[in-house]
Design goal:
heterodimer; A: alpha+beta; five-stranded mixed sheet; 29% helix; disordered C terminus; B: five-stranded antiparallel sheet
Amino acid sequence: MTATETSPAGASAGAFGQRLLRKEDARLLTGEGRFVDDLQIPGALWMAMVRSPFAHARIRSIDTGAAAAMPGVRAVLTGADLAGAWAAPMPCAWPVTDDMKAPDHFPVAQGKACYVGDIVAVVVAESRYQAADAVDAVVVDYDPLDPVVDLEDAAGDRVVIHDGLGTNRSYTWTLSPDPEAVDRAFADATHTVSERYVQQRLIPVAMEPRGVVAIPAPHGGELTVYSATQIPHILKVMIAATCAVPEHKVRVIAPAVGGGFGSKLDVYAEELIAVAVARRLGVPTRWTEGRSENAVATIQGRGQIQHMELAADAEGKVTAVRANLTADMGAYLQLATPGIPLLGAFLYHGVYDVPAYHFECTGVFTNLTPTDAYRGAGRPEATYALERAMDALARAVGVDGAEIRRRNYIAPDKFPYESIAGLTYDSGNYEPTLDRALELVGYDDLRAEQRRRREAGETRHLGIGLATYVEMCGLAPSRVLASLNYGAGGWEAATVRVLPTGTVQVVSGTSPHGQGHETTWAQIVADRLGIDPDAIEVLHSDTAISPIGLDTYGSRSLPVGGVAVAMATDEVIAKARTIAAHQLECAEDDLELVDGELRVRGTPAKAMTLQAVAMEAFTAHNLPDGVDPNLTAQVTYDPPNFVFPFGTHVAVVEVDEDTGRVELLDYAAVDDCGPQVNPMIVEGQLHGGIVQGAAQALWEEAVYDDDGNLRNPSLIDYCVPSAAEVPNIKLDHTVTPSPTNALGVKGIGEAGTIGSAPTVINAIVDALSPLGITDIAMPATPERVWAAIRDARSTQSGTGEGAS
Amino acid sequence: MIPAPFDYQRASSVDEAVGLLAEHGDEAKLLAGGHSLLPLMKLRLAQPAVLVDIGGIGDLSFVSDGPDGTVRIGALTRHHDLAGSDLLRDQVPLLAEVAGQIGDPQVRHRGTIGGSIAHGDPASDLPAALLALRATLVVRGPGGEREIAADDFFTGFLETALAPDEVLTEVRVPAVPGAGWAFEKFNRRAQDWAIVGVAAVLTDGATGPGVGLVNMGSLPLRAAGVEEALRSGAAVADAAARADEGTEPPNDLNASPEYRRHLARVLVRRALEAAGG
């Protein structure tokens, strides 16, 4: 099945499914794309932030005098100075429980700093350099307090961070449809697995750090904000709500944006401070984040301790899942902080048909940078815990990892599948992705080679790891969001306009920052209209041009925004039929749309091009009664369900016992996101996503000392991998369309990341399992692996056991 | 990532650079490729009042045959040019290999051998290679030119025998065509500094085998115990077991001292085996 077969328009297929080069790339690769920092804003003042060097400290006093006297400095503002600028604290849009505890969070700290990087004052100067120089001259008298860095320590309330809350525990959220059934399943189980996993904190490292410019019109009251954000529409609402600017006066533009991975799905202090300062001083005000500043001032991802338990019968059929999480909120709740772990809450049984389920998560404050959405947001954590535990179960049962999965997959005839966690999986067929992934790496040969090496006693250990994932994405049905207490809907808007000269404008409410919507949306429209994608321009990311939208995150753009584009295109086609039938004096049903032309069936000479119809609509000289004079349609689409992409990944690693080094020898991924609009872009998303998840497994961690200082705030020490560290990734796919949307599509932006971290760690554990090693903490650094092997060897020699 | 204010002076000759250093004393730093100094300045860990840019001095970029069985390398020769030098590949292949593994292509196209050596970073690869090769460094100051053996050049953490008013102008490396050699660099990512590195060259000459260690102490080191064992005819494995003798490896996010000592022994063994020892 392909999407064009589902197309009610019945246009000649063409652009959908093509590996079209991206329309965006010529300008981005030649430097024509303009990012926030590239914008020339005459007269703009530069801000630099004075940030707390203490993770937890009272602010006794701030002396701004010396800084204010420095060259070019126009203002130095403290939390007290700006207190009157805020109509409300910074927003947390996701109060996950009715009794969730949330501290007031103001853009500039008032009285207390709660993490290293918390803003305590703002320097405003004529140049970026002058502002940076004056930061050092601001004298802050701190009273350092005991910092709370360790998550379990924080949960114990030894030190309470936010005085008014009385505890560091923000909330406990439970999903437990039948607790007794879970207890029974564990009591009756032949095999049980009980594992503890740590999801280390990760720094998202978008290639472009954040930046903002706020441009006031002091006499008209308008405010234009340029921000390196994923969410111009949401930001507009939040600026109105927090800075008391009338919303109709606010315009937010996300120009070229260099990646986000969720880190730009937020409303940040610096954005609101720029607005407040610009309005106070009456001049444009800007700020560009430094790379090391980004490491502490932009949200971080993950940060969980997971207790994962499985109950299973004698054959290894899972009978219950019990997952208990402690999740690190950081110092404050940002836009979606408390809800991030809960995006995984429903997926701790994943692709497996499990009859009993318990999930519980407690969100806890620490004196660290706030956490929030990072590629996958809750779902990588869920998949990691489950897929690691499935391998542990396979070892307990004594079967191969592939076999334990086959015994537990939800059968293909069970879709749509009502899950124990309360979801309806739209479509799925998991085992073919496993079969194909094993085939791509040559699984049986690898197992034979592994046996050979083990028998020969070689010290370069071969490991094969696999994971099958399903995720819920395409955020989201608004009514489901309501049931989760989320503070907004999940619909998306699109407008399609056929212009009088025949070219087409598409206006989307999504806000791409690397995803290539300008290309794929054009392909969707071109395919339905039967015209050239180059005749289509996609407009987005400016609330004056695209006033309605909910932006880009959660693998939502295609299954929500792209579907809205398809639906708007179909409405345009319907309207064109009405006009053309009137002009050609035929019935609408007699018309077929072929190659951009509406033709009377059987009389192809009798036809009108879309351009001609658009011109008729424009001149309005001869339109049917009641037809508006345009060839435009706007659709707002609220999806009836999430979409559920899935796949199986296999990693092959070699572990050098002498050094602990893990080399990724091979990687195969077979993913299913339904029909692919542009397979090249899908592959790009998978390549990047897989490496980002592998990076959690092997390279990346935000490392803090006991005082709450980030020890690796630069890319020298924070190990984002490069192309040199990863093998060529073998990709293939199956196509299982979603029955819930007109294109059959599912999101693919996060899938790679969701699948890869457990795949890689499972491979390492597989390599070392003959030594009795069952866990390696992430990231599996050479020293960690070396130490684990050394300890295992000394245990073995101590007990006199052999190597296998 | 905004450096503190500084003055900038451009020198068009070594003598002019020496004069500017004499004028500004400790306040001044030489700028060559900038790939060690500028990051430190952007982090405000270094705040020189004056930068003396020697990058435009044209006659300090060369690789040539010396009259005395050495290969002579101008201090401003970039790593990329070292890696691609046919003369070096032929006469001192270890050095070409080491240069080709520094950082990433951008770094190799900007960074210079003189800058790397004068910075004296124990985590850099070139100092260890020059120790193994028993290179000589030529420096010029107000009193003229002098030569310093590589063994005497590195004096402490980021400290060298260069006086504040001296400029490193040339590196002289004994040609060792046909000698066994190897470079073992252990890191987590290709572009990173070595967690531990080993540069080894097995010569039959009077000086005997040379083994330099990267990142095993506060300054670039020679693995003296290994060299001594090799000179006395020890087997590779026995020699390699002495790799960490006399070292004080650092403790950082990538490795504990204990792990570094272990790595040094493993990497020296591998290097010696690869070099044909």
